[in-house]
């Protein structure tokens, strides 16, 4: 993880976002909705721009922030995004419509562990972004990696979890300690996965980039 000073410096020089995008960021901050940190978001968008995927699967819509940002970064991409929280799903719909992106962003309501058949209708995916319940990351990866195109990329967010995967001292909550163990287990599982070459980037809250072996 980079120092706060370095992170703040990077955030200061990130290109300005539109008023519409800033409005979503402000809503997320005000209502404690977890969205990607700016440095992580910019890194994700760089991969999207480089890959130029035709179809993206996002596991974890929240209020539509990252789906909208990816759609704006790649004008030809179609995005399928899953959200299980009904209130956030409805807000995401409103946000997507406010950007007039409903023809390129399809929102699916439900638990990502239960929607494989529905998601498969849109497969294959050139790019999969996992940013949902961290304790379920391995399930999500196993459910949807089979729908990845041969030269596809999977990006998973929050894999460093505020640095606690390296040092969990100070975590008094049993639930958080259990979550840290699950994230560690996922990281080790993916880094040793025989079908993927993966790396962890210390940006945002930690980002895993997994590229299918050719």
UniProtKB/TrEMBL annotation:
- What residues does S-adenosyl-L-methionine bind to? 36, 66, 83, 111-112, 131
Q: Which Pfam families match?
A: Methyltransf_3 (PF01596)
What does the similarity note say? Belongs to the class I-like SAM-binding methyltransferase superfamily. Cation-dependent O-methyltransferase family.
Naturally occurring in which organism (per UniProt): Fictibacillus barbaricus
Instruction: Relate the protein's function as given in its record.
Output: Catalyzes the methylation of 5-hydroxyuridine (ho5U) to form 5-methoxyuridine (mo5U) at position 34 in tRNAs.
- State the superkingdom: Bacteria
InterPro entries recorded? Cation-dep_OMT, SAM-dependent_MTases_sf, SAM_O-MeTrfase, TrmR_methyltr
Q: Which SUPFAM superfamilies match?
A: S-adenosyl-L-methionine-dependent methyltransferases
PROSITE patterns tied to this protein: SAM_OMT_I (PS51682)
Q: Which CDD domains match?
A: AdoMet_MTases
Q: What keyword terms does UniProt attach to this protein? A: Magnesium, Metal-binding, Methyltransferase, S-adenosyl-L-methionine, Transferase, tRNA processing
Protein name as annotated: tRNA 5-hydroxyuridine methyltransferase
Tell me yes or no: is Cell division among this UniProt entry's keywords.
no
**Binding sites annotated in the UniProt record for Mg(2+):** 131, 157-158
Q: How does it assemble?
A: Homodimer.
| Protein biosynthesis found in the keyword field | no
Q: Which reaction does it catalyse?
A: 5-hydroxyuridine(34) in tRNA + S-adenosyl-L-methionine = 5-methoxyuridine(34) in tRNA + S-adenosyl-L-homocysteine + H(+)
Q: What is its EC number?
A: 2.1.1.-
